[in-house]
Give the backbone structure.
Amino acid sequence: MTRCEIIANQSVQDEIISLMEEHIQGVLYTIIPTVVGRGKNSYKMGSATWPETNFILISYVEDKEVSVMKAIIAAVKEKFAGEGIKLFLVKAED
């Protein structure tokens, strides 16, 4: 089992969820809807100066589904090249 943690701009949230639900049968996830902070290239603070915010999506998937998750995020990154989208993977115990 692998913990998949996605941190991305809120503008791509629906796209990521749609693809996950389409390609990973029975996928379960938790969303932290409003996340602020500083990334490598920009600030997302939800303020007048830096108005954008991110979200975090956490999902635990079977190891055989990790390649599918990577492909989903790669597709979203290609479609929305200007948005910050990161996928972190951590091996998890059942």
